[in-house]
Write a structure and sequence with these properties.
The structure holds 2 protein chains of 2 kinds. Chain A is mainly β. Chain A is built from 3 helices and 40 strands. Chain A is globular and about 60 Å long. Chain B contains 5 helices and no strands. Chain B has helices at about 5-25, 30-45, 50, 75-85, 100-110. In chain B, α2 crosses α5. The chains are: A mainly beta, B mainly alpha. The interface between A and B is medium-sized, with 33 and 25 residues.
């Protein structure tokens, strides 16, 4: 399904509009939810002083409001990457469903801010790894999570349904706001006195010690986008992703989770959000093949452009209508100016588990180009024949799961050729949560392979691909002329941005489903899986030993 | 309609309960084979995505359970300890599964993919 020429691209774009259910709308107004009075936060510098002062470091989850995950300020490049050594390590002990870490740490003003998957937050000295303060909640979170900083605070979601602000100097809790329906699955962004955060679709698990965790996709739960007052935690506005009425069956349907930070256009104040899948998927015994949720299931699998001051939905474009297979469009939107047919055009790019990267016109939401990445099989089906078991690629962990990076008009994307089996009833599941685990448990990791793709954002054309022998969830992080990624087993690759060949590699202390922060001569990366999960710092000239990888995959030819 | 006195009927009920208790090893405990079979469902929902349904996991991060010496030890205590309290990047399941479910899944792990070790009871997983 890869696009190899402009004709195919144009044809597929047209087909997508006509048949695939792409729904582009300019939204006039969105009513303010009952009980919420629009207000404004107290006036503060739009870009928090801590973030502005650390612009050369890594002060936000994806480094900046455009979500580039790229630094040209660091000292590491292809000429010296071989000089990286282990500077310090911190053992990680708090494990949840997905290990101990699934986020990007921050680096600001020489301090590392890190959140583990039990909601615990640490501030560490970048130079030594010494702990400056810790705030431990021990509330299990699904992730991806992670902190934001600004205006003297560290902002986090916990693993239940709370949003919390800590004092940046000592970690003491300043305020906590209860959100709906569940938290622990998104790294917030802050701008203009607002905290922007989104929730998951699920119900917190109640336990005697309130230890966190959740049941996924409980009927009547939707991801909700929030604009909070950074000073008080007050909810200024919110936007529920799933339409009112839950597509006709609130006892069964849910979804539209928010999984990653938004993109923020600081010129217009627009915030951009990629949304998650609808549920149940594909269905249950009582309601097979998503029969509980007829129609497109707005606003699942959609790019949302939301006014950051009011919460008004300015435009939306659903890229996967009535999704049957957990094919989220969950990624952090990436903002850039592309040269489209010789004309400069502001675009916002979206990505997700559906395994297709889209560029939209930032003002109108019109699709500028779309590029499938990795293998696709049965993912366009709208019905599974009764009694049949089919393999769908991308599967529940396939497609683009983890953050992309942008530099010099090239988008770097890590996807996975990893399928999942499905039946119309979710292997005779009784509810949406059971249907999820039914497919997850049957997904064979040994069959998967990671594929790293470079895309020209002016055309949507694929420049090169690099295949790995195993699944990979290490995202993409550009550092000068290198782009870093990691396999699930914890092999870190510094790839040449020219052709995807490995310039340098190493074996991390644990498996990786998290992403690094880079500043000056140092890379801080969580490896949260396996027997010895660790947060570690690589530094040019550091004397700690680097473990070489067991084996390296050979690069493939460019398409 | 029974003509037996109440005390005699009560005695018979108690005898039956005692016999059941002796046969199963514990009042209310499932037969071993049923416990193992139901453990498969618990495994699928809670363990399969990492350790995989063939038990082979994804080394080095998700250990292979098939033939794993810790899993198949005569003494089930180390396996119970790991499942209840976690290890490394693996979470503990003490809070999310009840003692019966824990006994089912540990019994399943110890008796699948060629493993052949004793089942465990819910009294061992409390």
């Amino acid at each position: 399904m890869r696009l190899k020429n402009g004709v195919a691209f144009a044809g597929l774009t047209l087909l997508a509009f006509l048949f695939a259910g792409c729904q582009l709308f300019q939204d006039e107004t969105e009513p303010t939810p009952p009980g919420q009075q629009p207000t404004s936060p107290a006036e503060v510098p739009a870009v928090p002083p801590e973030v502005a002062a650390a612009a050369h470091e890594w002060p936000m989850g994806n480094r900046d409001y455009s979500n580039t995950r790229a630094t040209m300020d660091a000292q590491i490049d292809s000429t010296n990457v071989h000089e990286l050594g282990m500077a310090w390590t911190m053992p990680l002990t708090a494990a949840s469903d997905w290990g101990t870490a699934a986020s990007t740490p921050l680096i600001a003003n020489g301090i590392v801010y890190f959140q583990d998957l039990m909601t615990n937050v640490s501030a560490l000295d970048l130079e030594t790894g010494n702990i400056i303060w810790q705030q431990n909640y021990n509330r299990a979170a699904l992730g991806p999570n992670g902190p934001a900083i600004g205006w003297g605070k560290v902002f986090i979601q916990d693993g239940i349904n709370n949003f919390i602000a800590l004092d940046i100097d000592n970690g003491e809790e300043l305020w906590s706001t209860q959100l709906e329906p569940s938290t622990g699955t998104q790294q917030p962004y802050v701008y203009g006195g607002y905290v922007y955060t989104g929730t998951g679709a699920g119900k917190p698990v109640e336990g005697p010690e309130h230890s966190g965790g959740r049941q996924s996709y409980v009927g009547g739960t939707s991801g909700i986008v929030y604009g909070l007052d950074q000073e008080t935690g007050g909810i200024i506005w919110n936007f529920q992703v799933v339409e009112e009425g839950f597509w006709g069956d609130p006892d069964t349907n849910g979804g539209g989770a928010l999984w990653y930070p938004p993109g923020i256009d600081t010129d217009t104040g627009l915030t951009f959000w990629g949304t998650g899948n609808p549920a149940p998927f594909p269905g249950t015994v009582e309601q097979p093949n998503a029969s509980s949720r007829p129609g497109p299931n707005l606003y699942s699998n959609t790019m949302l452009a939301i006014d950051g001051s009011t919460g008004e939905l300015v435009w939306h474009n659903q890229v996967k209508s009535h999704d049957l297979f957990d094919l989220d469009f969950q990624g952090s939107p990436v903002l850039a100016t592309a040269l489209i047919d010789g004309q400069e055009r502001d675009v916002v790019m979206g990505w997700g588990k559906l395994g297709i990267v889209y560029a939209f016109d930032r003002q109108t939401g019109e699709i500028v180009w779309q590029t499938p990445v990795g293998e696709h099989q049965n993912d366009e089906l709208q019905e599974i024949p009764p009694g049949e078991e089919i393999l769908v690629i991308p599967g529940v962990w396939g497609g683009v799961e983890t953050p992309v990076a942008l530099a010099d008009s090239v988008l770097y994307v890590l996807t996975n050729n990893l399928g999942s089996p499905y039946t119309a009833t979710g292997f005779d599941s009784e509810n949406a949560a059971e249907a999820v685990t039914s497919s997850e448990g049957r997904t064979n990791l040994q069959d998967g392979e990671g594929v790293f793709v470079a895309i020209d954002i002016n055309t949507g054309d694929i420049l090169w691909e690099r295949h790995f022998e195993t699944p990979a969830f290490g995202g993409a992080t550009v550092v000068n002329d290198l782009v870093f990624t990691a396999t699930l087993g914890g092999t870190i690759h510094a790839l040449s941005r020219e052709d995807g060949s490995t310039v340098w590699s190493m074996q991390a202390p644990g498996g990786i489903i998290a992403w690094p922060a880079v500043a000056e001569d140092t890379i801080v990366w969580p490896a949260g899986l396996g027997r010895e999960p660790t947060l570690f710092a690589l530094r040019l000239g550091a004397e700690g030993d680097i473990v070489p990888p067991a084996a390296q995959a050979e690069p493939t030819e460019a398409p | 309609m029974s003509s037996w006195p109440v005390s005699r009927r009560l005695g018979i009920v108690l005898l039956v309960m005692l016999a059941c208790s002796m046969l199963s090893g514990c009042v209310g405990e499932q037969p071993v084979q049923q416990r193992i079979e139901e453990g498969r469902t618990v495994f699928l929902s809670n363990c399969g995505r990492c350790h995989q349904m063939d038990g082979k996991g994804f080394e080095p991060i998700y250990p292979n359970l098939a033939g794993n010496p810790i899993v198949t030890l005569h003494d089930a205590a180390p396996a119970i300890e790991i499942v209840l309290n976690g290890s490394g990047g693996m979470p503990g399941f003490r809070d999310s599964l009840d003692p019966e479910e824990l006994a089912q899944v540990i019994s399943y792990i110890r008796n699948s993919w060629g493993n052949n070790a004793s089942a465990v009871s819910s009294t061992e997983t409390r």
